[in-house]
Design brief:
The chain is an alpha/beta fold and 279 residues long. Helix content is 38%, strand content 21%. It has one domain: TIM Barrel (Alpha-Beta Barrel). The strands form five sheets. An eight-stranded parallel barrel has the order 2-3-6-7-10-11-12-13, surrounded by seven helices. A two-stranded parallel sheet has the order 1-16. Strands 4-5 form a two-stranded antiparallel ribbon.
Length: 279
């Protein structure tokens, strides 16, 4: 498995809509179809955010369940569900709204955002200690693998603290999100720094937002990591040219991995790499 690389497709996030890129999937049917196309192009993991009937981000379990059912009708893929699916979920009182859907949906993986930050110089992305404890314990109880989303170096040290507390368990899987305003800049030096902080037996992946998409992908592959692509992170295929689909971004990552003499991991191979049991 040493030569295998996992492609994770982040299909749609909390931000953006069809006015930004008409290809951005919004409805359960659109997200499921985009997931199927991404898997056909080489994705082994799909990272899911949901939108409500008006296109606003939501953590409603019924939207996740509907979408995942449609995906599983057509393909086998690892389901990675966000825990930060609404702009308004920033107070301790709303922790249950972020945690409880996992008990209903029971995905393979769930995002675990490892600290609070100033998001896009516009708002606060709050992930309190109370939330991180509650979410980590829920993941252990349900059997969900945490994807440790890292936007800055200090967040890695937060994961090491919760590892000592038994709220996180080895082997850990990190997802470096680089280039978000308010977080760590998307440079190769910063990627090397983040990689140096994590336990040696961890798996890791990285994504560069917007114009950092390709440079961070190339550096990640050269350093032995896995990659994340998709319209959540980057709505363009190249400068001034909107991406036509998530599958188009996955297909390019597939070609780069293959050209570098590596192999794209299948969903079953990715489960083995990430120490996941098939559900």
């Amino acid at each position: 498995m040493q030569n295998k690389r996992i492609i994770s497709a982040a299909l749609t996030g909390n931000w953006g809509n069809k006015s930004n890129n008409p290809a951005l999937p919004i409805t359960p049917k659109e997200i499921a179809e985009s997931a199927y196309e991404a898997v056909q192009a080489g994705a082994a993991v799909v990272h899911l955010h949901m939108r409500d009937e008006e296109g606003n981000p939501t953590m409603r379990a019924d939207r996740f369940k509907e979408t995942i059912a449609l995906i599983k009708e057509k393909c086998d893929v690892i389901i990675n569900m966000t825990s930060s699916g609404e702009h308004t979920l920033t107070s301790i009182a709303s922790d249950d709204a972020r945690v409880n859907p996992f008990y209903e949906v029971k995905p393979d993986m769930g995002s675990y955002d490892c600290g609070t930050m100033n998001w896009m110089h516009k708002t606060i992305f709050e992930n309190s200690p109370q939330l991180l404890e509650k979410l980590g314990k829920a993941y252990l109880e349900i059997g969900v693998k945490p994807e440790l989303e890292i936007f800055d170096g200090g967040m890695v040290y937060t994961t090491l603290y919760y590892l000592k507390q038994g709220i996180l368990q080895k082997p850990l899987h990190y997802q470096f999100i680089m280039g978000a305003p308010g977080g760590l800049a998307a440079t190769v030096d910063n990627l090397v720094y983040l990689k140096s902080l994590i336990p040696e037996d961890s798996t890791w992946s990285a994504a560069g937002l917007s114009v950092a998409h390709i440079p961070i992908m190339l550096a990640t592959l050269g350093m032995g990591g896995h990659v994340r692509v998709g319209l959540e992170d980057n709505i363009y295929f190249e400068k001034g040219v909107l991406a036509k689909s998530n599958a188009q971004l996955v297909e390019r990552a597939n070609k780069i991995i293959t050209a570098a003499g590596m192999q794209v991991a299948t969903p079953d191979e990715a489960r083995e790499i990430l120490s996941l049991k098939k559900k």
